Amino acid sequence: MARKLDDVMAALPKARQQRVEARAMELATLKDLRLAAQQTQEQLATTLGVGQDTISRLEKRSDMLLSTLRHYVESMGGKLELVAQFPNRPPVVIEHLGVDAGPDHKPAGAGRRARATA
């Protein structure tokens, strides 16, 4: 016989319920973020200047560019931060990833390739 998740959760000790809820928050999806911001796919699509179908596809992807994710989060009023965590060291916030550096920016090694082919 099938059991409802709410019934299973209610049967767990309070400490276990809290751990399960904390872990569930770590696994938030883009859809969860959008719903928490109380926005529809249509509203977010309008903000980003894309179609609703594009938002639907983004929310189903498991891999995307950091710039795409940053635009998605910022369009809801949030800020995307990427943090690298290493054993026995404090976390490091990685900045400027997924940010357009402008027309004068050259990717690392671009000059080397240009000279090598010249």
UniProtKB/TrEMBL annotation:
SMART domains, alphabetized: HTH_XRE (SM00530)
InterPro entries from the UniProt entry: Cro/C1-type_HTH, Lambda_DNA-bd_dom_sf
GO molecular function: DNA binding
Region (Disordered): 98-118
Residues of the HTH cro/C1-type domain: 30-60
Classification via PROSITE patterns: HTH_CROC1
Segments passing through the bilayer: none
Protein name per UniProt: Helix-turn-helix domain-containing protein
